[in-house]
Amino acid sequence: MSYPQSQAVPGRIVVISASVGAGHDGAADELTRRLTAAGATVDRHDFLDLLPARLGPLICGSYHQLLTYAPWAYQRIYAATEHGGETGRLTRAVLRRSEHRTLRVLPPDTRVVVSTYPLASQVLGALRLAGRLTVPVLTYLTDFSVHPMWVADGVDLHLAAHPIPADQARAAGAERVTATGPVVNPRFGPASAAEQEAARTRFGLPPRAPLALLVAGSWGVGPVEQVATEIRDSGAAVPVVVCGRNQALVERLRALGIEHAFGWVEDMPGLMHASDVLVQNAGGLTSLEAFASGLPVASYGCIPGHGRTNAAALDEAGLAVWIRSREDLKPVLGELLEGPLGRAQRAAGQALFHDDPVAGPVAEILAAAADPVPEAVTDPASMRRPAARRTAIVLAAALATTMLAGPETTEAAVARGGFHLLHEFGR
């Protein structure tokens, strides 16, 4: 399905993401690019900026610290909330304080709001249910596995990259779900032999050896040093490691003799052109970019929480094999590089993508934006600013209750999702 630019709907599409890692923003960037190319006017907002009391940086920093220094705690929080989807009293209080700020960034000519971040979806869904937001809200699921927090009552439509996350969203309670396929920048695509050779020259990589591109998100988290040395010692491939913004990890890898370690890479399409297989630990946007690039993908050394659930979902879909032991690393990488497993995964990955850039989720968003215009985007009565003193009291009381609770109470709070502020989804 395509949506010709000459028929582009009037009005505005608002996309709300979150700068937690790079995955949510990456999906929002590509949706914005394609919607703009189709003739839509698009506004972008970071949900962390819409949180009260400057909590956005605290949430982002806390999540980063958990993954870096206490991954076991992140796994515990993720598991405690995985089957209930309850946000907990503390999180609900904070999200309620975000509703007014969210409404304020929606111009009068807004036709549809798209979220690529679960907590933003929770706020938008609540506003829809309360009648305070009168235009459609769509959630684009950036993860291949769907935690219940992704599914918000009141959201009109959930868009998934594949039938497996679509089914998971339905199981979590989503009423309307469509498997639309992923959105990836068109710079990612299969490379010819000449393009691979040129890319290897640009990056200073071995011209003939099989190369395993190891990624660990924009923060470079997980057992990256261990995985890189295990790939090297297996002899199956030469590890090429992207550490994101974690420059300290780059230095540690080079000290271990991992020669090809990079920090933030602007030309990821080129680096994928240079590589033969991707090894990843979180199942985020980079995996989708690898599928588009024609690379077979392995999940190994996965980070807790969404890293493991994404690995399981990708394995079930036949898109990325999940390697669970060091003993399996060499034979599985060999199969991905030269065997039928690699050929099957390349074909499955390529089949995800539409030839038409205005198909899939973009078509669904444009169709929602073409619906009849409501008399008002928001209920005027809902725009009254909540009392700052009341907001401060609610947040202070909620935080104090959680932080001062004894061990038994704290354990119960975790089970209810009370610490979900520290659990941001995706990379």
From TrEMBL:
Lineage top rank: taxon: Bacteria
GO MF assignments: transferase activity
InterPro entries: Diacylglyc_glucosyltr_N (IPR009695), Glycosyltransf_28_UgtP (IPR050519)
Domain Diacylglycerol glucosyltransferase N-terminal: 24-184
UniProt keyword terms in alphabetical order: Glycosyltransferase, Transferase
Gene3D superfamilies for the chain: Glycogen Phosphorylase B (3.40.50.2000)
Any Pfam family matching the protein: MGDG_synth
Family: Belongs to the glycosyltransferase 28 family.
Record protein name field: UDP-N-acetylglucosamine--N-acetylglucosamine transferase
Lineage: Bacteria, Bacillati, Actinomycetota, Actinomycetes, Kitasatosporales
